[in-house]
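Chapter review: from sequence to fold.
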Amino acid sequence: MSIRVYYIPGSHPCNAVFKALDLKGLDYKKVVVIPPAHRLQMKLMFGSRTVPAIKYTDASGTVEKVQTTRAIFRMLDSLVPEPRLFPAAQAERDRVIAAETWADGNFQDVGRRLTWAHLRRSPQAMLSYSTGDRVPLPAFVQSAAAKPVAAIQAALNKADDERVRRDLAELPEMLDKIDGYIADGVIGGESPNAADLQIAATLNLWMSMDDLRDAIEQRPCGQLTRRIFPAGETHGHVQGGILPADWLAPVRQATPSAV
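The token string follows.
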């Protein structure tokens, strides 16, 4: 089987898919696409503008195309049943799907907004997320393009100041919800399920940002994230002091010692 994964370096949904492929023991080739041009490229190749996207050729020579993390997870479980991304028992499966749906919705959107809010203010940090990736642009072009790309992506993802401040105010409640999923056994089992991967990929991205890491890493959800995505396995770093301190006050007040 031949598998190609089209992705944006640092993308949390893409990292979730890479982890799922690794868990399934499948070989694959990674193909970098460049934002925001990827929207047209993916539309032409796959019919929709999003990544991750997979093109695979099965043993009979049939070429299949799959887009979105959720669709790819289901495809992977059909190709390689074990380890399962979705439990066999219906009640457990329903709970995982509910958590996965939440993680793939507003939570993932918040992940994008907070990321681009940081990178709009520190555009050169964007290059750290593609360390080791085969980006089809010379380094000097990547560096020159970082500022306009970050500004465009921030606008496309609606990472305006008002919304980002609201996201930060709501972040402690989201982290509490994830810790609740762990306490209830929905995520955090011996083998990561689809919800584990969706949630941990977003938290792993946030933990690459100094302004957010302390609020996450000592929580159960932070510890789970480091089990799934060990430190140093994925690239990228944004130094602290990027966002205004008053924006971060609700997050810092809800660190584990205060919860």
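Two observations follow directly from the output. The chain has a mean pLDDT of 95. The two ends are 48 Å apart (CA to CA).
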